[in-house]
Write a structure and sequence with these properties.
heterodimer, A: alpha/beta, Rossmann fold, 2 domains, 6-stranded mixed sheet, 4-stranded antiparallel sheet, 14 strands, 35% helix, B: alpha/beta, abc type-2 transporter like fold, 4-stranded mixed sheet
Chain lengths: 310, 381
């Protein structure tokens, strides 16, 4: 069987809702044990659908997928119980305390907190001072840490996390990724979805997903290296006016705001000097052009544009 | 730990999972103070409303007597009325003006006027008249009060006759077609019980399951190795207990406060209640399987279940008076059968033999609903 020894194998998965909404189109990838695999894409890209198919909660229209060699369609009950899953919405009981949530999920997954405490010890230690507090009264970051504990308590060999850091402050996000890294090091395969491009660096490999399709899949460095679109950062007075002017420039392929500057990609091998003089001719002052290394976000946009142009 | 084989950690059995689930569910119920208050307060409020406020019975109505020539017969009748729990004797008056004064002050609502020749007429002409004057400022009460008084006078007359043949007598013009025993408050008990159990069982169960869907916890529960059957049972058990508590509260109020006469087969009643609670829980499960939002579940329970329960149970509107198609339709409403069972056991004090048919129908419906709930339960989202 293809993908022997892989933690997760996804092969040509398609899924549509009600016929016209194509949530996933021919998605394929593999995840090795001990690998942290990131699904990165905007809201509505199909990340949640994909994770639900892998956790046997949804059936794909076509294609196949397996977790530890178990087919998600036929052997779903065997998969349930060996995977850890953290749904996108905060999925703990708000009216139960931290302790009660952990105990409940441990029991429902057929184990005890005592037996597997070592798995969650690192994370749970931070929650311990609040163990009698109701989960609904925890901060966003604390909630996600508790949810992670609950997803880990039955020693899953594959962990599926759906946007675990959405709505969490930057410090807690960093913390959370540190925990995922340590879990990965202990041999668990982790599939995590996120809308934050900057979290890509935390993953061994990432799949950029857009409109139900994987538009690139590699390590972050690999993806950056393979996409050397000439990108210029443009500064100038009156940011909005500059953006409008750049979009009106005939040689512009696309241009978008990026913090305090604009990132510009020109058609073919057009000279940026042309764009610069076009801007000055339009009366824009203090215009500066600078060639930059595309970030993962630039690459994502470039890939999206490539896809749109096809 | 990555080398651990799948399933190895499943050292905890199904029963422990089930108990953990039930205890979690119990915590939800106990911590939601407002809902708990409603769950336990509702039977009390409904019993009070139906038993007292909405009752068409009038208790302890003050009455006065205008008796120009008191004699044995009029005194006996006056005592008779005064002894009844519906009337309280306030005093004798000398004129009709005085009656009006009592009415105006609200000190009396009924006046009994005996003509001066009452005794003579009764024994010699065999035809005597009594005038009942009622305070008509509240027409409904006035009507009820005069009806009661008429009935009591009639009853008195029958007892006085003592089997002897007697012609004429005091003419009773008002007939009481409904509720001839002049007792009404506890007639509501089986109906209130039916409605409450239906509402609580179906709504609470469906809402609590749909809440898990809404909050996303259902996703985790489905991915867990716990069998869906345990999940459904774990949901049903706490609400079954709550519904039973409500039945007990209703019975305590009925016997303690509403003076429901003793004699009902209580173990039989509890067993039948349990069967009906299972019916409602199964219905709740069916609802929750097809619904994604708590509000929808609540709406379906209220409109889809409570309305037919009200209309077709025979509790508010007699089924015999409905057109044929509606009567047939009423047969598929489970509340109709439980109402029949409960009222027979509680009011008529019959045994199991008399409620076999509705019991079997109800049991059949319960099994059907459970099968539907089981078949429609989705193991995926």
């Amino acid at each position: 069987m293809a993908g022997e020894g892989q933690a997760v194998v996804v092969d040509g998965i398609c899924k549509s809702y009600g016929g016209d909404v194509q949530a996933l189109q021919n998605v394929s990838f593999e995840v090795k044990p001990g690998e942290l695999f990131g699904l990165i894409g905007p809201d509505g890209a199909g990340k949640t659908t994909l994770l639900r198919i892998l956790t046997t909660l949804l059936l794909a229209d076509s294609g196949s997928a397996s977790v530890h060699g178990l087919d998600v369609r036929r052997e779903f009950s065997a998969i349930r119980g060996i995977v850890g899953y953290m749904p996108g919405k905060f999925s703990l009981y708000q009216d139960l305390s931290v302790e009660e949530n952990l105990n409940f999920f441990a029991t429902v997954f057929g184990t005890t907190v005592k037996a597997n405490y070592h798995l969650v010890e690192d994370i749970y230690r931070q929650l311990e001072p609040f163990k009698t507090r109701l989960a609904g009264n925890l901060s966003g970051g604390m909630k996600q840490k508790l949810a992670l504990c609950c997803a880990l308590i039955h020693a899953p060999t594959v962990l599926f996390l759906d946007e675990p850091t959405t709505g969490v402050d930057p410090v807690s996000r960093k913390d959370f990724w540190g925990m995922l890294g340590r879990l990965r090091d202990s041999g668990i395969a982790i599939v995590v979805s996120t809308p934050y491009m900057d979290e890509a660096a935390r993953c061994e490999r990432i799949a950029l997903i857009q409109k139900g399709q994987i538009i690139a899949m590699d390590s972050l460095a690999g993806i950056l290296a393979s996409n050397q679109t000439e990108t210029y950062a443009v500064r100038g007075e009156g940011l909005l006016g500059v953006l409008k002017a750049l979009r009106a420039y005939p040689e512009t392929r696309y241009c978008y705001a990026f913090g305090q500057e604009h990132h510009l990609v020109l058609k073919g091998d057009a000279d940026p000097k042309g764009a610069e003089s076009f801007l000055r001719a339009q009366g824009h002052q203090d215009v500066s052009f600078r060639r930059i290394e595309p970030t993962i976000e630039d690459v994502f946009i470039a890939l999206m544009q490539d896809q749109a142009d096809v | 730990m990555a080398t651990e084989t799948p399933g190895k950690t499943h050292s905890v059995g199904g029963l422990t999972m089930f108990l953990a689930f039930v205890s979690k569910e119990a915590k939800h119920v106990l911590r939601d103070r407002r809902s708990l208050f409603i769950l336990l307060g509702l039977p009390i409020v409904m019993m009070t409303l139906f038993g007292f406020a909405l009752s068409n019975e009038v208790k302890n109505t003050n009455f006065v007597v205008l008796d120009q020539v008191p004699d044995a017969e009029t005194i006996a009748l006056t005592d008779r009325l005064a002894e009844s729990r519906y009337f309280t004797f306030v005093g004798r008056v000398e004129s009709e003006d005085e009656i009006t004064k009592f009415f105006r002050r609200g000190d009396a609502r009924l006046a009994v006027v005996f003509p001066s020749n009452f005794d003579h007429d009764l024994h010699h002409v065999h035809h005597a008249q009594v005038l009942l004057l009622a305070d008509d400022s509240d027409p409904n009460t006035a009507k009820t009060v005069t009806n009661y008084a008429t009935a009591i006078i009639g009853q008195h007359q029958v007892e006085m006759a003592n089997g002897q043949h007697r012609q004429g007598g005091i003419r009773v013009q008002t007939r009481m077609l409904y509720n001839p025993q002049l007792k009404s408050s506890y007639m509501f008990v089986p109906g209130v019980m039916t409605l409450l159990v239906m509402l609580l069982g179906a709504m609470m169960t469906s809402v609590s399951i749909v809440r898990e869907k809404e909050r996303g916890t259902m996703e985790i529960l489905l991915v867990s190795p716990m069998h869906p059957l345990l999940l459904i049972l774990g949901k049903a058990v706490p609400y079954m207990l709550l519904s039973l508590i409500d039945v007990v509260i209703i019975l305590l109020l009925s016997y303690g406060v509403l003076d429901l006469p003793w004699g009902a087969n209580i173990p039989l009643l509890m067993a039948e209640s349990l069967l009906f609670i299972l019916t409602t829980l199964a219905l709740g499960l069916v609802i929750s399987n097809g619904v994604e939002q708590q509000q929808t579940a609540m709406f379906i329970s209220l409109v889809g279940l409570l309305m037919p329960a009200l209309v077709f149970s025979g509790f508010m509107f007699p089924i015999e008076n409905m057109p044929m198609p509606l009567q047939v339709l009423g047969n598929v409403v489970p509340t109709r059968w439980f109402y029949e069972i409960a009222s027979k056991i509680m009011i008529k004090h019959v045994g199991f033999a008399s409620v076999v048919k509705p019991t079997l129908i109800l049991a059949g419906m319960t099994i059907l609903f459970m099968l539907v709930a089981w078949r429609t339960f989705r193991q995926r989202l």
